[in-house]
Design a protein that fits this description.
The protein has 106 residues and is an alpha+beta fold. The chain has two helices and five strands.
């Protein structure tokens, strides 16, 4: 369940990872399987100018920046589920179909 921010962040809504996985499962119309939410990250290296203290001088140092490329869900076997996983059959069950007499559903 999403949590409405309080205090200085009252205009922010927080989502836990199960909320994110559930939303993505529903968005894609997935009705079966266990799914884990994840992030694809990318790391970039370079040289950065950083302040050396209270003075105006800077020092060039090596460093890195990590970026989030995307959010994803991955189907996992039932024996590998963890707190980041949700069951699509529970959070997005198939709608019940009413089949007229004489017709079959395959």
């Amino acid at each position: 369940m999403a949590i409405l921010g309080i205090g200085k962040q009252a205009n922010t809504i927080f989502f836990n990872w199960q909320d994110v996985a559930t939303s993505l499962i529903r968005l894609r119309g997935i009705h079966t399987g266990w799914w884990r939410v994840g992030l694809q990250l990318d790391v970039h290296g370079g040289s950065f100018d950083i302040p050396t203290g209270k003075t105006a001088s800077v020092m060039r140092v090596p460093g890195g920046v990590m970026t989030v490329v995307n959010v994803n869900i991955t189907e996992v076997p039932e024996e590998k589920i963890d707190p980041l996983c949700v069951n699509a059959a529970v959070v997005n069950p198939r709608p019940n179909l009413i089949v007229p007499a004489g017709l079959s559903v395959q």
